[in-house]
Design brief:
Length: about 375
Amino acid sequence: MTGSPNRPKSSEPVLILGGGLIGLAIAHQLARRGRCVQVLSRRRSEAAGFVAAGMLAPHAEGLSGNLLALAQTSLERIPAWVAQIEADSALACGLRPCGIVVPFRSSAERDAYPTAAWGEPLGRAALEREIAGIGPSWRAGLLFSQDGQIDNRRQLMRALERACVALGVGFQEGAEVLAIECGGGGALEAIRLRTAAGEQQRLPCAEAVLACGAWSAQLLPQLPVFPLKGQMLSLQAPRQALKRVIFGPGTYLVPRADGLLVVGATSEPEAGFSEGLTPAGQRQLQEGLEALLPEAAGWPPMERWWGFRPCTPDQGPLLGASGIRGLWLATGHHRNGVLLAAITAELVAGVICGSAKAEDRALLEPWGWGRFQS
Ligand code: GLY
């Protein structure tokens, strides 16, 4: 991972291609470091940051290796990152360090879980104390009290946008990036886009960040990033009905502070970019919900939605240099975009500004594009 040898002066804008959570988080960190930033966003509602459930779950997700290390570092930094966003925006982000319970059908299954060493083992009685009303088939559990959630859809995304605006970040909403142009020497020269008014524009630029989520390979077709569709729904639970997130196999329940219960999520690799809800996907969520918490079947449904996770072959993100000098990658966060937004923004902004510490450069090192090119 190297920085740009001809680093532009800090007055030259960095273009952020993608106005989702990762793009906004990087824009915010660059603006905090004194850079001039412009965000190009096609349609903010499609951003995975608006779709996700907002779990902060490196342990509950059972991550391992370098991805667990990256995710644990992000989890540690999230409180300070959220404090910056809240200070810059004057809006709350809805961070809840509520802990996550992973239920299992047997203690043997529990003890074999990849992150079992980081959790508190629970038997059936302790599981019932943590999750009143949990379904009868769950005999054991792991409590990860260090994991939690953030209200990404209703709070974090809005707060980040407001923080960016407060720091002078420019936005073009409805702007579809059509192409990335590079010059003879392999350096970024310009971005071509179609504005919301339908005009084609060429924006000369020396630095940009590709943060287009599941759509990233539409701009750089060689990038190994593909969509992984997820369907979700929400219910209105009685307030305080559930104090912790429940992370079951194939279904998880995320209780917001006001009682809204977010239920996720299908994983549909064969769906590509096909939009919409499906009966099979919604049935899967309903069955998962009823198996985890039977009484929730009677709670009123609120919303149903879907989105596309940006996935890579090894399920790790693509971060850092792109092969085009001046174009940086921040995509491919798979199931962990909300969790990894804090560390991604710090690492990528630090590298662009040439201020990343050695420990951060070491964290970034495993996530380069080169790992898929040998
Ligand atoms: N982070 C959970 C999911 O992507 O469904």
